[in-house]
Amino acid sequence: MNPDDILERLEPPPGGLAKLRALLESRPGVLRRLAPPIAVAVAVAAIVLLFVGRRRAMDPLAEARRQGNGAEVALGLAPVPKAPVIVDSDSRGTTALARVESADPNVAFYWVSSTEWH
Length: 118
Fold this sequence. Notes:
With 118 residues, the chain is mostly helical. Helix content is 42%, strand content 10%. A hairpin with an 8-residue loop joins strand 1 and strand 2 (109-114).
């Protein structure tokens, strides 16, 4: 089905396009007035980001060693902590651990609680 069969084609009013063009040419556009300040702001932002925004590249191996999550420990990227309690990053917001002291310093017990368990 052709759109011309469904919709009626409307013609603009007489002189409408000429009036619109005259109106647009009579007023200076907002873009024309704001173009120089916008160009200066973009140039300043580019210079600031170029010199100030430089950061050293992240070292994925050092970051894995710093985090020490279960996956990093299992892959040998992070050392096993003295009291090995590992909570995955996905569960850190919903899981709580409390260390329970024991008579033997080589034995560690933890109470584990989670809001996601049923």
